[in-house]
Amino acid sequence: MAKTFIITGGSNGIGKETARIIASRHPEAKVIITGRSKETVNKACLNLQPLKNIEGYALELTDFASIKQFADVINTNVASGNWVLASIVHNAGMQLSSFERTAIGIEKTFHANHIGTFYLNKLILDALKKQVEDPSTPCRMIIVSSDTHDPKAKTGVPPPVFEDPRELTYIGREGFSKMTDSLLAYSSSKLCNVLYTYKLAQQLPAGLTVNAFNPSLVPGTGLTREHNIFIRGIASTILPLISSSLGGSTLARSCGGLADLMDSPTYDGVTAKYVDITQIKSSSDWSYDEHRQNLLWDLSEEIVTKHAG
Ligand SMILES: NC(=O)c1ccc[n+]([C@@H]2O[C@H](COP(=O)([O-])OP(=O)(O)OC[C@H]3O[C@@H](n4cnc5c(N)ncnc54)[C@H](OP(=O)(O)O)[C@@H]3O)[C@@H](O)[C@H]2O)c1
Fold it and tell me: What transmembrane ranges does the database entry give (predicted)?
């Protein structure tokens, strides 16, 4: 029976550094990380050596079969008592530079950053509810969002659109021409992360908490990898130098904050909150709108029921 921490998207950037911190803090525990492929996650595990308590799995959030496979691993290990899940961080996420659809025809950022997480949680929720029936084995869920979800944060990324969440799927839309459109898809998907967190929290039993996390601007990760060489160049050279003047953070600070949210007694029983690196803060006005929360929930159910079976 091993105390276990799961971090999706732990093969790079924020997820990988957080895995390093958690695995070092808890040498007796198991730390599970995922990457889009076996290759990326295996490379990360090698890179995280000499830490021996990190295991990697493939998880592609735009592929329902891949999600089901990973959920089966979680369910089997939790049900057998092999893993006692202390926390699961839904951190995996992407930002695109142009419009792309996934195999089921929906916009890829929305699919990866929200629908994939929604489906993974749907598949593992029963196992987690069962685990927390024993008050000695609570579990924390964390959904990694971003301050780009909040127009008031003035991040430079266009603020989300969210009147009808069907807009987010961009079904039937011909295609994007401007880069800002893909950034808008990104900020909107990050609003979905917070709307979903608050709605999910209402349905969880005592012992199972869920909070949204904002790492703030963290230069030097792979988030801009899909952009052109010019944007990537700015992100890797100039942004780290000016990040603090833009209200940004560092990998060490943000990942330390995320690791605390995973394991610190400070957050015992805390649920339905938005944690900005180390502090509980208000999220955007829209994120508290129950009408938008319900619209998103219903659309997500509809998509997974139709396409994932
Ligand atoms: N960096 C920032 O400034 C910043 C600010 C606010 C919020 N965030 C959020 O922080 C999270 C981590 O971002 P990061 O900056 O660390 O980016 P990153 O370095 O690009 O890492 C992204 C991680 O997610 C995985 N991933 C990407 N697309 C995926 C998909 N379709 N299915 C499954 N896994 C996928 C990647 O796997 P592979 O290695 O296999 O590609 C990688 O492990 C994201 O949710 C992002 O929105 C970042």
Answer: none
